[in-house]
Amino acid sequence: MGKFQRNYIPPINDDDREYVLENFDRTLKEGWIQVYNQPIIRAANGKVSDEEALARWCDPIIGVMEAEWLAIKGTEM
Fold first, then answer.
1. pLDDT tens digits, residue range 3-12?
2. 62, 77, 69: which is closest to 17 by C-alpha?
3. Measured distance CA(59)–CA(24) in Å, rounded
4. At residue 23, does pLDDT exceed 50?
5. Quick check: 24 and 11 in contact, CB under 8 A?
6. 3-state DSSP assignment of residue 15
7. Which DSSP string do the residues of 27-77 spell out, in sequence order?
8. Which residues are CB-contacts of 76 (< 8 A; sequence separation ≥ 6)?
9. 28 backbone dihedrals φ, ψ, rounded to 5°
10. How, if at all, do strands 33-41 and 63-65 pair?
11. pTM, 2 dp
């Protein structure tokens, strides 16, 4: 594998959706949401031109969820 290997994170299913809604307050309290900075690299010269912040829900039961959980919680507010 190359140095830019990325682990597969499956999409959120209906069971996970319920879990997100039921445990959102807990994840904030227990610090399960992690922020990662990712560089944006220009294809033309290979140099870093910017960066973006990525939020991940790192749950001890169902594992890592990409930011799809933000849309789930947003629809419930």
1. 544 555 666 7
2. 69
3. 11
4. yes
5. no
6. helix
7. HHHHT-EEEEEEEEE-TTT--EEEEEEEEEEEETTTEEE-THHHHHHHHH-
8. 21
9. -65, -45
10. unpaired
11. 0.60
